Amino acid sequence: MKIALMRFLETREALAGVLQQTQLELYYQPQLDLRTGAVVGVEALLRWRRPGVGLLVPADFLDVAEESGLILPIGAWVLQQACRQAAAWRSAGWANLIMAVNLSAVQFRQGRVNEAVSAALADSGLPPENLELEITESILLQGEEAVLETLANWKQQGIRLAIDDFGTGYSSFGYLKRFGADKIKIDRSFIRDIHADVESPAIVQAMIQFARALRLRITAEGVETPAVAESLRRMGCGQVQGFLYARPMPAPELERWLRARDNPAQVLPSGEAT
Ligand code: C2E
Ligand code: MG
Ligand code: MG
Ligand code: MG
């Protein structure tokens, strides 16, 4: 317990300075249409280039950021940075590229997530239709009036809503409609085990069928092998994301990847259902 506390205090102290010292970075991982291979969007993923330590992933520090409240300024920075980058890519010709940003439940609980989103859009000039917010089922389960209001407000503006890590929480499909979700992202654990056990493929298949019936888009996370991609294709999955296609990359690298892959015109029109 002492070690855990020391880690918390030490990480919190180091994290407190990251925004001023520009130690935070966003990496971007493509999301593709499984049928055509077209790039539909990218997900922004937070990294901390910590001096003397190296490049840290969210698992190394997100819990501390959330428990200390530092996730609020950090989350606002993520939104601003991701929207600016998406606006720059729009100007460079990838007009339909969707930028997906992860939100923490703490950002909802402590309020002002609304304002952070509006500020990022206003500051960058990014059309709301190009922004997708990824939230987890735990936010929906809070079920509070304020959360519902925020989600409805975003929907009205044209902002997209994706349910992340779907299948790991407790929410029912009924929730999805009620909260105005546009997309579900099947958690990596089901995708990883799709050939390893008998339950996972049945669960994935059911999720895909429900999503189709509800006219929700669906993305499979963590696709690592061609065999998994082929199974997903047979099941009728729309979109994929995973190391098989691309790892999360810094912006300049992602841009080179996009250029090498296909010309900007091939990015799907954002309204297209996949
Ligand atoms: P997530 O939103 O479910 O993001 C997907 C995670 O899976 C990313 O991990 C990504 O690098 C990883 N991934 C993608 N494809 C594969 C694959 O084929 N194989 C494997 N093994 N992993 C794959 P990452 O970047 O470490 O992020 C972990 C989690 O941290 C994210 O899960 C998200 O919940 C959270 N997170 C990331 N960035 C932010 C942020 O800016 N704000 C907040 N609040 N949370 C964030
Ligand atoms: Mg996500
Ligand atoms: Mg996920
Ligand atoms: Mg996750």
Q: What can you see in these coordinates?
A:
With 274 residues, the chain is α/β, with parallel strands linked by helices. The chain has one domain (2-260): TIM Barrel (Alpha-Beta Barrel), CATH 3.20.20.450. Helix content is 47%, strand content 20%. It has twelve helices and ten strands. Strand 8 (217-220), helix 11 (226-235) and strand 9 form a beta-alpha-beta unit. Helix 1 packs across helix 2. It binds ligand C2E and magnesium ion (3 copies). The site of one magnesium ion (MG) has 5 residues, from strand 6.
Kindly identify the CATH topology.
Answer: TIM Barrel
Biggest sheet overview:
8 strands, mixed, barrel
In CATH terms, the superfamily is EAL domain
Number of domains: 1
Q: What percent strand?
A: 15-25%
Protein structure class: alpha/beta
| General shape | globular
Give, in spatial order, the strands making up the sheet with the most strands. Answer: 1-2-4-5-6-7-8-9
**What is the annotated CATH architecture?**
Alpha-Beta Barrel
β-strand number: 10
Helix content: 40-55%
Q: List the secondary-structure elements in sequence, H or E.
A: HEEEHHEHHEHHEHEHHEHEEH
Helical segment count = 12
As a whole number of angstroms, the C-alpha radius of gyration is 18 Å
For the residues shown, what is the average pLDDT? Answer: 90
Low-confidence stretches: 269-274
Distance linking N and C termini: 47 Å
Write down the CATH class: Alpha Beta
Bound molecules: ligand C2E, magnesium ion
